[in-house]
Predict the 3D structure of the following.
Amino acid sequence: MKQPPKLARKLFAVMSGAANVDDLLGDMDEWFHENTKTRSLVSARWIYWKQVLSLSFSYALRKRRRDARHPVFATWVSFGMLNNYVKVALRNIYQYKYFSIINFFGLALGMSVSLLLISLFAYVNTYDNYHTNGDRIYSVYSSVTNGPEQTDFATAPIALADKLGAELPSVSKVLPVVKAYHSVVRKTESIPVKAYYAGSDFFDFFSFSFIRGNGTVLGKPNHVVLNERTARKLFGDADPMGEMIELGGGVLMQVGGVIHDQKRTHLNFDMVIPIASLPPKHADFKNDWVEFSNQYLYVRLTEEADEGDVQRYLDRMAGQQYAASAVKVSFDTRNLTAIAIDKDLRNEIGEKWEASGFLMFAIFAALILFPACFNYANISIARAMGRAKEIALRKTVGGVRSQIFLQFITETVVIVLLSLVGAMLIFFLIRSEFQQMLVSGSSLDLTLSPRLFLWFLLFAILTGLATGVFPALYFARMNPIEAFKSRVVTRAAFISLRKGLTIFQFVLSFGFILSLFAVGRQYRYAMNFDFGFRKEQIIDVSLQDVKAHQFMAAVAPLPSVVTMSQSSGIMGVTSSHAWLKDIRSDSLETAQMFVDRNYIYNLALTFVAGSNFPNELWSRERYIVVNEEFLRVRNIKAPADALGRIYSVEGNDLEVIGVLKDFHFAPINIPIRDFIFRENPAYCTYVNLRVTPGDSYDIVSELEGAWKQLPTDKKFVARYFEDEIYEAYTVYVVMLKIIGFMGVLAITISVLGLVGMVVFTAQSRTREVGIRKAMGAGVQSMMLLLSRDYLMMLGWAIVIGTPLTILLLNWIMPHIQYYHASVSVWDVVLSVLLLLTFGVSAMTIETYKTATASPATTLKCE
Amino acid sequence: MKHYLGELEELVLLTVAVLGNEAYGVSIQKNIELRSDRRITIGGLHSTITRLEEKGLLKSWVGGATAERGGRSKRYYEITSLGKKAVAETKSLRDNLWKESGIKLAIK
C-alpha cells in the first residue's frame, strides 16, 4: 500500500504538538488513498503536502493546540491565583532573608540612577505642552551648508516671516523673535537682561499667564513685558506698571505688563520688547538672508494645514533665495512641544536639554541597572536546586508552565517593588546634589508628583518583568522527574554565560575605579598645568567704568603691588578673534588680546625673537606681537623672518615686532592656535596687578580701599588669577563626583552579587567541606577551594578591564581637554589593589564561615 | 443569541444536515466541492467547522475507523438545534428579501 510522505507527517506532528489530530490525519489519509487511485503518486503526495500546510496554519489546529495546552481547570489567571502568587512570593522573600536583602540593596542602588533619569525626562517632556494650539505651532530652523561643512542652526532669517505669512495659506500667523542681551540701567547699577524683540503676537503664541496687564501691549511701541523675577530685581516690591526703564544706550521703555516666571519652556527671557522698537542699526534684517544669528521664527498653522505644504514651500523659498550664493541654506520645522528634547542645534533661543546628554545619561543608568538585574537572575538560578522540589511538586499536581512562570515573575516584581522604596529613598538623598551638577538645574523641578510616581511604578514593574523573565523561564521548563531526583543539570553554555556576565560586572567596576583615578589625575594636571606664563600672585581687576590710569595711579603707592599691566581679557580663560589680512590679502582668523606694553613682562612671557612694544608715546596701533603657532600656520620658518612683516587688521597695517614662545592663552581643552597681542589701552578692561605673596584677603581689601577713593559707584571686582583658573576647571570636580558616585554604586552592586554567589557556593558545598575537613584539610585550603572560581573571575576582569578602560579614556579625554594627562601605571596598580580589596574581603568573610564550621555539625545537617 | 452565518458556514451546516449520519471531514468537503463546483482547502473547511462548534451550531463525536484511514477514527458532525435555528433564520431572511424584491430574479 502506498504511503503518504513521511516528512509531511513529521511536520504535521511538530505543528500539532500535544493537540488531538487523529481525525485530521485520518481524513488526509483517506484523501491520499482516493487520490492514488485516480492520480499519479507524485500528485497525490503533492496534495497531501498542501493539505498539511493548509491545516498547519489553520485556525482549527491553533484552537486544538490551545485546548491541549490548557487543561479545563486552568483557564486563566484569576484574582485569587494572583493573590496566592504574591503570598508565596512574600513568604519566599521572608524565608530566604539573606538573599532577599542582597537583592533588595542591589536593585535599590541599581534603580536609583534610573529614577533620576526618569524624573528628569518626565519633567523635560512636559516642556511647552501647555500652550494653546501648541500642536500647530512650529519653529523654523535652518541648515547652513558652507562648502563641505553643514551646520544646523535654531535660527531662521526674519526676512522669511513676511513671505511665509503672505504667500502660504496654511500659515495662520508668523512670529518673528530677535534675541538680544541688554543691560537695564537702574539708578547706578546696570543689570544684565535677556530680551526678546518679538512680534505683537508673542503672548498669543505662548500662553504665559499675566500678573498685570496683558499681551496686547506688544502692539504699542516702546512698551515691554517683564517676568516677575525681573520686575522684582528692578523695582523690588513696588508696582512696576507704567514705570520707565532705561536700556543701555539711553533707550527708554515703559513697563506694560508682568507675567509669572515662565517654567517648563525652551524660551528663556527676562523681558519681551516689541520688534518695532528694535534699534535701527539692527532693524535692517528685513532683507537680510545671509546673516541671521539670534533671529527666530515661529509659525502657527491653520487647522486643516498640511505640513508637507509648508516644507515644500520652505524648500522652494530656500532654492530661490540661495540660488546664486555660495552658502546654501535649507529650512526645516519642528513642533513646539518637541523642541526641548529635540536634536541639538546651534544658537538656540534659550537653554536646551541636550539630546546627546540624555543619551549619555541613559547609558550610564543602564550600566548601573543592568548588573543589579543580572545579579538577581544569577542568584535566583543558582538557587534553583533549593527550589526544584517545590516546582516539581507543583508541576506534578497539575501546575502548568505558565503558572510556574507567573509565580516567579510575580516574585521578581514583588521584590523589585520593595526595592523601589529603597531606590526612592536614595533618589531623595541625591536629588539636590544632582540638580546642582546640571547647568540648567536651577529651573528643574524634580519633586515627586503622582504622575512621576506612576512612571516610577511602571519602570519598576518593567524592570521586574525584564529581570524575572530568565529565571522564570528556567524554572518553568524544569522537568519534574529530574527535579525530584535532585538532578537539575545546568547547561555548560549557561554557566559560561553567567561567568561572562560576572566578569563584565567586575570589568565595569574596575573601569569606574580606574576612571576615577584618571580623572583625578587630570584634575591635578589641569590645576598644575604649565600655561607658559606666570599665574601666581596675579590679581585681575575688572575696570568697569573706571579709567585705567586713575586706578593704576591709586594703587601704585601700595607696598603690595609689584608691577601693573592692562589687558582686554583674562589669559587662559577667555579669548577673542580677529581677521588678519597679509600683504597678498589672504584672510585668516586669529585669536587676539589687547594689552599694554607692560603685560608681556608682567606675565613673564618669553620672546624667541624681536622685542616688546617700543617704549615710546602711544598714539595709534602700529605693532603686533605674535606667538610661534602664528608663524607655523603661515609657513614662516625662522622666528626672525617674521619680524617686520605687515598685516592688516581691521584697516590698520600692523608690523610684527616680536615673537613669543607658545603659551596657553585659552583654556587647555582647546589646542594652542595662532595668536596676536595688540597694543591698544582703549580696549583694555582689566588691570593685572602682580602682588607680593602674602595674605590674599588683606591685599584685596587694601586694593578695594583704593578703589573706593575713585569716582565710581561700581563694586570692586578682583580675582586672583589662580582662583579664576581653579573655577574654570570645576567641570572636573563635577565629573569626579559623578564617576565617584557611579563607581560606588557599580562596586557595591558587583560586590553584593559576589557575596550572593559565594554564599550560595559555600552553602551548597557545606557537606563537601565537612568531609574534606574530616579527612584533614585546613581552613586556608578550604577557603581557597570555595573562592577559587571567583578569584579567577576577578583576575579576568582586570585583564580585560585594563586595556578597555585605557582605550576608552584615551579616546574620551582629548574630546574633553586637548592637553591631558595619560593613565599611568600607578593608576592601574591602585585600581587593581582597590578592586581586589573589595572583592577578596567580601569573599573571605563568607567563605571563612563555612571553612571554619565544625565537620561534626555540618555533616549532620542533612 | 443571534448568529450571523458566513456563506461557507451556511454551506457547511446545510451539507452536514444533508449528509445525516455520514457527515465527517472528507465527505463534507467532497459534497461541498461537488455541489458548488469550487475547491475549498482542508484548513479552511476545518477552521469553519471549529468556529461553528465554538458557536454551538455543530456537535461532534468520534467513531468509524477504516483501513484507508490507517485505522484512525473519523470525527462525525451533527447539526444542533441552535444550528438548525440559525440556518432557518438565514433562510427566512433570504426568502423575505426574495419576496419583497418584487422582480423576477429567476433565470430566464
DSSP finds four helices and two strands in chain B. Strands of chain B lie at 58-63, 74-79. Residues 81-101 of chain B form the longest helix (21 residues).
